[in-house]
Amino acid sequence: MVKRKIKDLALEKAHAIARVALEKEGEDILVLDLTKSANIFNYFVLITAGSSKRVQSIAKAIDEELSVNWKQNARLEGKNNPSWTLVDAGDVIAHVFYKDARNFYGIERLWLSAPREEINEKCLKKTLKKKLSKSSAKA
Question: What domains does the chain contain, in order, with CATH numbers?
């Protein structure tokens, strides 16, 4: 039961990261469920940015989201790298790539068997609606 709640919280964090990336004009956002594949973390959030400045902007916004709303200090790797910044939030790892770097490294190809969820505006509205209906039912 406790393990299930931890997984749910990690997924909620992954969705929060995806929402922030979408708000900052991130593209091709993909959440990979690695709960059965990796022991160190639960989810990868893969994000494509249209420019090197946007890579930095999205990574900074994710770091702020984690700090303010999750009370968590994330580690940023490559924050001055114009093509790839990794945001380590413990159980969720966000990779913010410039388009060419994402294609070159192909992280999603390394985890082909992992369940995946493409994130877009419609998907996040649906997730938020489910969350709101669950909290209304509890009240």
Answer: 2-123 (3.30.460.10)
